[in-house]
Each structure stands twice: as C-alpha cells, then as structure tokens.
Amino acid sequence: MTPFGPSGRRRVRHVLRDALLSLAALGVVGPPALSQTPAEVPPERPVASGALTCRVSASRTMGNAYRDHAAYFATNLYGKFGLTVGSSTKLTGVVAGTSFFNENPEGLNQQQVIENRRMANPDSLTYNEYMQTRRATWGVSGQTAIAANQELSYALYYRATQYTESVPSTVNERTYSTPGAFAQYAITFGSGAIRNHLGVGVDVDGQSIDETKRPNLGGARAGALVVADQTIHQGGLGL
Predict the structure, then answer these.
(1) Within a 10 A sphere around the Cβ of 4, how many other Cβ atoms?
(2) Phi and psi of 111, rounded to 5°?
(3) Which of 5, 87, 115, 225 lies at 20 to 30 Å from 218 by C-alpha?
C-alpha cells in the first residue's frame, strides 16, 4: 500500500505537478516524517522595473504524521504586483494558489488503541478516506486621484475552490465560485480646523456552490449513482 492509499498513483501525479509548480529550489529536512521545501522568487526584497514592482513566493510542506494513513502535503503559490500609471493611478494585483491534501485515519476504539495506537481505523483504509482542497484567487485593486481632494478606489476579484472528500458512505465533490467588485468615490473638503471627508461607494459580491455525492465503492472510487446533487447561488449588494 502506498502512503497515499489505494488510489495513490493519481495523487502522486498531483504531488509531482505541485512540486514543479512550487519551484522548490531550497530543501529543509525537519523532524522524522516531516519535510518542508520553502522557496521564494525573488527573496524578501521586491524587484522593481520602472513603475512595476512584483513579489512571487512559493512553499511546499509534506509528511506522514504519527499514525498510519495520515500523510499530507500542501503547496502554496503567491504573487503580488504593483503598477503606477502616470501620476494619478496606482494598481495592485494579487494571484494566489493552494493545493492541500491529507489522509484521514479516523478514530479508534479502546481495544484498537491497546493493540496499536498508530493504526488507522479499518474503514479509513477500506474507503481511502481523505480530504483535498485546490484553490485559485486573483484580484486587482486601484486608486485614481481625480483631483487634489478627490479619489476613486476600486477592486475586482475572483476565487475558485475545488474540494474533494472521501468518507465510507460517499465520495463528495464540491466547487465554489466567488466573484466580487467594489468602487468608492471619496472627497475631502473644508478649511482651517474643520475638514470633511465624504465617501460614496457600491459593493457587489456573489457565491456559487455546486456539490455532488456518489457512493464510495472502496478506495475512494465513486459509483455511477448520484446520491446528492445540489447547487446554491447567493449574492450581496451594498451601498
């Protein structure tokens, strides 16, 4: 049995893919059953090119934990970019991604703990219980000076999440889509000791959740029958 259960080959491919994406140029060996591979390109100091600044970082963590069927790994990528347009507009962009996986050894009864406290619950092995999350986020925000005392702020963002969980009864697949945007106009006026600041804005966001559940045939293999299929849409508007 591989450290990642009966369906390990598929997730091993994900590990290799994520490792390449993480740009693991540095290696750090931690305690037994724990290794971390952080990398940052460039280092802490931002890199500037004219009116453009940027910072990109990546990290990688993996291990086998204390109990059987308790392996995990995580990859995180992050990029932040700044751009000055003329003398009045500043833009900031963020791009981020994460991939996290962990096996679930479940609980043990008293007799099982006496026999081997590191063992996984038999159902956990039979059905290859695990949880995996993949998430991507991007966003752009900006400020534009309309006049010496007037400014327009705005942002646009989107987050997509894919979540998979294998439990003894079902294999659950869930996706989240979360878009949003806002804009705000601000003006400062007055003289002497009395200054006034007035802002007017609008905020719009939404979320869509799609979930399906199929029978777990063993080893996290999903059957053809759909046990649950539901979609949720929600949104908000603020003034």
Answers:
(1) 22
(2) -65, -40
(3) 115
Q: What is the pLDDT at residue 193?
A: 83
**Separation of CA 217 from chain center:** 29
Q: What is the mean pLDDT of the chain?
A: 83
pTM of the model: 0.71
User: Could you count the other beta carbons within 10 Å of the beta carbon of residue 201?
Assistant: 14
**Position 33, amino acid:** A
Place of tokens 């369906």: 7
Q: Cα dist. 169→104, 124, 141, 230 in Å?
A: 14, 11, 44, 18
Spatial CA neighbour of 205 closest among 179, 184, 232: 179
Structure tokens at 204: 């719009």
Helix, strand, or coil here: 21?
A: helix
Given a contact cutoff of 8 angstroms between Cβ atoms, the answer to whether 38 and 62 are in contact is no
Q: How far apart are CA 237 and CA 221, in angstroms?
A: 41
DSSP code of 86? T
How far is residue 102's CA from residue 124's CA, in Å, rounded to a whole number? 12
Residues 84 and 88: their CA atoms lie apart, in Å, by: 8
Ordered DSSP codes for 135-183: EEEEEEEEEEEEETTEEEEEEEEEEEEEEEEE-SSEEEEEEEEEEEEEE
Q: Residue 42, preceding bond cis, omega within 30 degrees?
A: yes
Contact status, residue 59 vs residue 35, Cβ threshold 8 Å: no
Give the integer Cα–Cα distance in Å for 41 and 50: 19
